[in-house]
Specification:
Strand order of the largest sheet: 9-8-7-10-11-12-13
Number of domains: 4
Oligomer: single chain
Number of strands: 22
CATH topology of the largest domain: Rossmann fold
Strand content: 25-35%
Shape: globular
Bound molecules: S-adenosyl-L-homocysteine
Distance between the termini: 36 Å
CATH superfamily of the largest domain: Vaccinia Virus protein VP39
Radius of gyration: 27 Å
Structural class: alpha/beta
């Protein structure tokens, strides 16, 4: 049994979705942050659980060929990046694998993905940054929160932000120090400046600086604006957002214009968009344009279709496809985003689009009642995916194709499995890297309606089928992988066969029965039984 602080040798053979390397020691899975597949390491055990443990790198004995020198000096302390220590080519390989594993393990979908689309810019790609401001150890700190903490890691040269953000943040910090502007303190709820929010149009270059303040005024604002304008001639908007609540939510409700416009504009897929601080907008514009182009290819529009864009945000996806469709209906739950979407349509002189405010599933049901049957449905939900009612409602609308865009391939795989039961077959998918160096990746998946009239019903006598041992072994491995992934439990083939028998499933005649009368056979503990039953249900075996 491994002990805390024990030093062990470890070879990293796999990596988790959060970017932690995995190795095995005496049958135990060991998770090691900041490691890479192929590393030979010396590990100090940090924490031991029943089925797995966590360790920290003590020494790199042989580095993985994927390793590079991190470009960021605070990459290990800051929570933002998990792949600074490996090459971008390796990161893409890992991400392709995560998505494929999720389809297989969670969705039971064995479909090879199309090659991951790399971000045109693997660094400096973000168009928005929100820097928390704190006074720590007598210092005015601007940077990012450390993982699971409210301690700010001072970082002014983040590799993900454009260089102009670093220039601005340095100047703002100096201005605050020189003018004794106080930093917000969460404990006492005193101090003025809470966050500095920067947003820039990737194509327009228009720059917005928004000061999130625990108050209604910012001292010496004229002098402040003058200083900023000298740094960036593209400065188009300086805002003061008032947030006096005791909350983790960054932006408050009220925003005042200190200089320029209340919102900046940018172009995306050749269309103009107005961006207020609250408006949702993909952070990597150029990669998002690639994402939308792939979604458009999957949508296969000819100009005759009604397109339903569910979870439409400010309408970017639907509007980018409006010229290829007969009409577009967007649905979004946040009223302000719906207003922005309508304004964006008007600003681009798009007349075949309308936007509804409401829950995606409810709005789809309402549209179906009105007799609207879209040919193509776009789904682009938040990380938690769609609820089953929404998926059922969409399937009832009988679109030819569903294009599902997701920032969480685990819920995507779950929802695709559900859509499969509703006669929608996943036919192709492609990961798109909108967030290089972080653990996140987008995926676009095309699901096609199965034409029941084209399917022939075949009655099979299962007795005629020869289930080879290879097939049944694969099933056991799948069950094991599912139970480990979902419940963090390791289960043996013996336990699986016991539960299969309990459920009345066919198990090889002598399979895992005791070899002799006297042999003691361990029985599956209740916790593992529940997990195996869930897996059998998941794989639709019971
Ligand atoms: N498609 C947009 C936005 C995707 S983000 C784009 O590419 O820019 C997901 C969006 O779903 C957010 O705007 C969020 O406000 C919205 N949303 C969340 N829950 C929803 C629901 N139940 N019904 C409709 N929209 C919802």
């Amino acid at each position: 049994m491994l002990q805390k602080n024990q030093i062990i040798p470890l070879k990293i053979t796999d990596i988790t979705h959060e970017g932690s390397g995995i190795g095995h020691y005496e049958g135990m899975a060991v998770f090691v942050p900041n490691s890479a597949i192929g590393d030979s390491l010396e590990i100090r055990i940090l924490k031991v659980n029943k089925t797995h443990c966590f360790g920290l790198i003590e020494k790199i004995i042989v580095p993985s060929p994927d390793r590079i020198q991190p470009a960021c000096p605070v990459s290990r302390q800051c929570g933002g990046c998990v792949f600074q220590h490996i090459s971008y080519e390796a990161e893409l390989r890992y991400k392709q694998r995560f998505v494929e594993q999720n389809f297989r393990r969670i969705g039971g979908i064995f479909l090879e993905g199309e090659p991951i689309e790399a971000s045109p810019q693997p660094e400096h790609y973000r168009n928005k940054a929100q820097y928390p401001i704190r006074k720590q150890d007598g210092m005015f700190c601007t940077g990012f929160f450390a993982p699971r903490s409210h301690r700010v890691i001072n970082c002014e040269d983040c590799q993900l932000q454009p260089p102009v953000f670093s220039k601005l943040i340095k100047i703002i910090r100096r201005f605050c120090e020189d003018n004794h502007i106080s930093a917000y303190d969460e404990k006492t709820q005193k101090g003025l400046l809470r966050h500095i929010y920067l947003r820039r149009g990737a194509h327009s270059q228009e720059m917005m600086v928004c000061l999130v303040c625990n108050g209604h005024t910012f001292p010496k604002s004229d002098q402040f604006i003058q200083t900023l304008r000298e740094i960036d001639p593209n400065l188009a908007s300086v805002l003061l957002n008032v947030n006096q609540e005791n909350t983790n939510v960054i932006l408050g409700k009220q925003t005042k214009v200190l200089f320029g416009k209340p919102a900046i504009t940018d172009t995306m897929c050749g269309l103009h968009f107005t961006l207020s601080p609250h408006a949702f907008y993909q952070v990597n514009t150029v990669a998002a344009e690639r994402l939308y182009a792939i979604a458009a290819e999957y949508a296969g529009l000819t100009g005759e279709e009604t397109l339903l864009d569910l979870y439409c945000g400010v309408g970017t996806i639907g509007l980018s496809m409006a010229a290829q469709a007969k009409n577009i209906i967007g649905v979004e739950i946040i009223p302000q985003a719906v207003q922005n979407a309508s304004a964006n349509a008007a600003a681009n002189k798009i007349e075949n689009a309308r936007f509804l405010c409401g829950d995606a599933g409810e709005a789809a049901a309402q549209l179906a009642k009105e007799g609207i049957h879209p040919h193509v449905v776009i789904l682009d939900p938040p990380r938690k995916g769609c609820d089953s009612i929404t998926l059922e409602t969409v399937a009832k609308m009988c679109p030819e194709r569903i294009v599902y865009i997701s920032c969480n391939s685990a819920t995507l795989a779950r929802d695709c499995a559900m859509l499969q039961t509703l006669d929608y077959k996943p036919v192709r998918y492609r990961p798109v890297d909108l967030f290089p160096r972080t653990q996140h990746v987008e995926t676009v998946c095309l699901l096609s309606k199965l034409r029941t009239e084209h399917h022939i019903k075949v009655d099979l006598d299962l007795g005629d089928m020869d289930l080879t041992s290879a097939e049944s072994k694969a099933t056991y491995d799948e069950i094991k992988a599912y139970v480990l992934e979902k419940f963090g439990l390791k289960v043996s083939s013996l336990y699986i066969s016991q539960i299969k028998r309990k459920c009345g499933l066919e198990v090889g005649e002598n399979y895992n029965h005791p070899k002799s009368e006297n042999t003691k056979v361990p029985t599956c503990p209740p916790e593992k039984e529940t997990a195996i039953r869930k897996a059998l249900e998941h794989f639709k075996m019971v």
